[in-house]
Amino acid sequence: MTFMDRIALFEPADFTALALLFGLWAAIGWRVEHPSATHLSTSQIMADYRQEWMRQMVHRNPRIFDAQMLGHLRQGTAFFASTSVIAIGGTLAVLGNAERLAGVAGEITLMNDPTIVWELKLMVLALFLTNAFLKFVWANRLFGYCAVLMGAVPNDPDHSEAFARAEQAAQINITGARSFNRGLRSMYFALASTAWLAGPFTLIIAAGITVTVIWRREFASASRKILLSS
Where are the extended beta strands (E) located within 63-170? Predict the structure, then answer.
């Protein structure tokens, strides 16, 4: 079966739903990282707090609390990276038994699509999970860089390089958090992509719900109001 033959197995609604899924994923990611100046996202607000954290660290001695906090951040990224690997392994296992999946899915959705269709749909799920894994691993490494930079901050607040190095640590910390958030969004849309197994219109609904949940958490959540209440 040629590539064009495989493409012909899908309906225009499938391509529309898939384009919407990736379009919403890219759009909400850009909006979260580039919000308007008058309505910041939760991620941008937290970036300011991360900078303030590093400024306060310069005056804190000993810095055991800061080391513990960064350790918790690295544990979180490691946990989600491990979860992504397990999910990828499960998806690949299902791909290896796609004929059985096709039979079960066909009974549920009443669609008699060939096995290759179900395999391609699962590959979209694997793609999002792989991207999430890579983002979590990079975030973990960036938090490691941040730990080194924090260790390089002089203990004397009056040192000429103290706040400059603290600012470097803050920027690396913010970059790590950005990568972590990108990984989380990939996992959210990975879950949404599973709805494609039930058809393109189900995928459109799932993508819409996912982007709505992310938007609410970033721009209209109770936690955001608390962060802005100071």
Answer: none
The larger pLDDT score, comparing residue 93 to residue 185, is at 185
The burial of 94, by beta-carbon neighbours within 10 Å (0-12 exposed, 13-18 middle, 19 or more buried), is given as: middle
Q: In the structure encoding, which two tokens stand for residue 46, read together?
A: 């937290």
The token pair at 133 is: 């894994």
- CA gap 230, 29 in Å, rounded: 27
Q: What is the DSSP secondary-structure string of 22-33? A: HHHHHHHHHHHH
Residue that is written with structure tokens 């392994």 in the block: 89
Phi first, then psi, for residue 97 (nearest 5°) are: -125, 45
* C-alpha of 141 from chain center: 16
Distance CA 108, CA 51 (A): 51
Q: Which two tokens stand for residue 94?
A: 């299902």
| Per-domain boundaries in the chain | 40-227
Threshold 0.85, pTM exceeds: yes
Q: How far is CA 37 from the centre of its chain?
A: 23
Identity at 193, one-letter amino acid code: S
Residue 151 has pLDDT above 60, yes or no: yes
Sign of the Cα torsion 59, 60, 66, 67 reads positive
CB atoms within 10 A of CB 205: 15
Q: Is the pLDDT of residue 141 over 60?
A: yes
Condensed to tens digits (0 to 9), the pLDDT of residues 75-91 reads 999 999 999 999 999 88
Specify the residue for token string 């910390």.
173
C-alpha 74/C-alpha 76 separation (Å) is 5
Length of the chain: 230
pLDDT of residue 227: 92
Copy the structure tokens of residue 170: 């803050």
